[in-house]
Write a structure and sequence with these properties.
The complex is a heterodimer of chains A (99) and B (491). Chain A is mainly α and 99 residues long. Chain A is built from 3 helices and 2 strands. Helix content of chain A is 37%, strand content 4%. An 11-stranded mixed β-sheet of chain B has the order 1-3-2-4-6-5-10-11-9-7-8, with helices on both faces. In chain B, strand 10 and strand 11 form a beta hairpin. In chain B, helix 9 packs across helix 12. Chain B starts with 11 loop residues before the first helix and ends in an 11-residue tail after the last helix. The chains are: A mainly alpha (99), B alpha/beta (491).
Chain lengths: 99, 491
């Protein structure tokens, strides 16, 4: 399997990345080199096997823990927004989305 | 009484003892290490200091030491944290331009737990951007040099942690291990490091790379010191980390001195194949001989999917990374591009400016393997083989109590050697990836020197929750040998 520069553009768009032409070209070569390595994996017979998403699940029952629905934190908005690039009256500002 | 110039040669255990005996104060200790860290800035190990915060913590430790009522195990002992942990008093940037200047409103659980035991935070340590790398050359804030040879890499991604501990700029440090990021730099810098069972240490406040693999652990100069730190770091954090194990905190130092008589050490054939450099093999073989002298028995075993762990890991980890790193969009925190035409353009410009090459590469791979039409063939297939890798280990543990082999196929390479060839650095992770995929505890123990007089690390892997057994085996080896006491020249 080999990716094309169109694939790279499509993936970059999905990943919300903008690659310069030389960057995109380098990426194509490197990713194709990487997928040569991955081919080995595709040939393995895994029929009947369940995918393992979580390493604990192979040696212990994993139960999704639920917290009690109770207030545990006080309002911390100012501290939480201190790192935001653009904030006004406690709101995160983004470019206009709806015309 | 120790003079202050010798403070940095003390182990964590010795230093804690000196502090308890009030032979040295926590403030003097902190000042001594801060001065050393600053004097050796050319190593690139430290990223951030906050002297005021450090000395405030040290004064609090001194007050507790004076009162003499605290049971805290690390009162006044300086530690430094990999920059992947968020910290209230220090910048937290995960080695990324994306998070330049970020200050967290809270401390990571691991940071808070060490502070509860009286540890004093000395600063934040350099690492590969978002912990993606094996040489610490992917940090947006500069590379880290190996104290044993400053023309070589310290390993990665916890390269700053390993270099700082090896150069005695701090007695111990935290790190994180996703595919070998504690074990491999520990090996390259000739120190001891352990990654516990997945779920033992809370991931709360660890900037996420690959959530089903990320695990925190300590790097120090001996197994005994690692046991002290690991005991403080681990324990349930059920409300804040959904994958935190409901297993009580444990004193991992309890069984350090147990005899190794009758211990069965599995030696996997796949770890000693043609990819392994002869110098590394010689050092690891010598350490295995020491284990036989200590009464252990070597058992040949097989881990047949060792080689497959590379593609499996490099599909799963980037898949999880592409999802985790989607949060960096320039809205709630982190970098935002200055110029853009609309919202989508803002996302793209922000992310393209904020992320480095390796991070972009992994996001691209991850996005691709999760995309429509490729998910089953890549991501699910990798997860199925991940189960096979787990089963291989469980088969092996029927015949042995521990597994031993090299941490990496070579000693630390020269700076720049693999920086243009990401694939070559992925391949070098071969021996640490299997235990990561299985979520097993693993450690690196220094076992001598190879080419260029660079340190060699031996990897020990145990079954789930058997950290105390790992540390016991490492400690007994360190009682019988002096490889871990070697010191890089000039430090």
């Amino acid at each position: 399997m080999s990716l094309t520069s169109t694939d790279i553009d499509r993936i970059a768009n999905l990943a919300r990345l903008e690659l310069s032409p030389p960057e995109s070209e380098r990426m194509l070569t490197q990713i194709n080199g990487f997928f040569d390595l991955v081919e080995k994996m595709r040939a393995v017979d895994t029929s009947g096997l369940q995918p393992l998403a979580h390493p604990v699940a192979c040696w212990q029952d994993v139960v999704l823990r639920l917290r009690e629905d109770a207030v545990s934190e006080s309002d911390n908005r100012a501290a939480n927004q201190r790192n935001a690039p653009s904030v006004e009256q406690g709101l995160f500002l983004v470019p206009k989305v709806i015309e | 009484m120790k003079t202050p110039t010798e403070l940095h040669d003390l182990s964590v255990a010795e230093l804690a003892e000196q502090l308890r005996a009030r032979k040295v104060s926590a403030v003097e200790t902190a000042q001594h290490f801060l001065a050393r860290a600053r004097a050796n800035a050319e190593l690139g190990a430290f990223l951030y200091f906050n002297e005021e915060a450090t000395l405030t913590q040290a004064s609090a430790a001194d007050a507790a030491l004076a009162a003499g009522t605290s049971e805290a195990s690390l009162l006044g002992v300086p530690v430094a944290h990999k920059d992947i942990f968020v910290t209230r008093d220090f910048a937290a940037t995960a080695g990324s331009k994306m998070l330049t200047g970020y200050r967290s409103p809270f401390d990571a659980t691991v940071v808070a737990r060490l502070a509860e035991q009286g540890a004093v935070t000395l600063g934040k340590l350099n690492c590969d951007e978002f912990a993606m790398g094996s040489a610490n050359e992917n940090s947006a804030f500069g590379l880290v040099k190996n104290p044993w040879d400053q023309t070589r890499v310290p390993g990665g991604s916890s390269g700053g942690s390993a270099a700082a501990v090896a150069a005695r700029l701090v007695p111990a440090a935290t790190g994180t291990d996703t595919g070998g990021s504690i074990r491999q730099p520990a090996s390259f810098c000739g120190i001891t490091g352990i990654k516990p069972t997945y779920g033992r240490a809370s991931r709360y406040g660890m900037v996420a790379f690959a959530s089903s693999l990320d695990q925190a652990g300590p790097l120090a100069r001996s197994a005994e010191d690692c046991a002290l730190l690991l005991s403080a770091m681990c324990g349930p954090d059920l409300d804040r980390d959904s994958t935190s194990l409901d297993v009580p905190a444990e004193n991992f130092a309890r069984t350090l001195d147990d005899s190794l008589a009758g211990l069965r050490i599995g030696v996997p054939a796949e770890f000693f194949g043609e990819g392994l450099d002869a110098d590394v093999r010689t050092a690891v073989d010598a350490a295995l001989k020491e284990y036989e002298k200590l009464g252990a028995q070597l058992v040949p075993i097989t881990l047949p999917r060792t080689e497959l762990s590379i593609p499996v890991y490099y599909v799963i980890a980037p898949a999880e990374a592409s999802s985790n790193l989607s949060r960096f969009d320039g809205v709630k925190f982190g970098h935002r591009a200055e110029q853009y035409s609309d919202l989508i353009d803002m996302y793209k410009k922000t992310r393209s400016q904020g992320f480095g090459d390796e991070v972009k590469r992994r996001i691209m791979i991850g996005t691709y393997v999760l995309s429509h039409g490729y998910y089953d063939a890549y991501y699910l297939q990798a997860q199925k083989i991940r189960r096979m890798i787990v089963d291989d280990f469980q088969q092996a543990f029927k015949q042995c109590d521990l597994i031993a082999g090299p941490v990496a196929p070579t000693v630390a390479w020269k700076l720049g050697d693999k920086s243009d060839d990401p694939l070559a650095s992925y391949l070098a992770d071969i021996f640490t990836l299997p235990a990561s995929l299985a979520g097993l505890p693993g450690m690196s123990v220094p076992v001598g020197f190879g080419a260029g007089n660079m340190p060699v690390g031996m990897q020990l892997i145990a079954n789930y929750l058997q950290e105390s057994r790992l540390l016991n085996a490492a400690h007994r080896l360190q009682q019988a040998t002096d490889w871990h006491l070697a010191k890089p020249e000039g430090f």
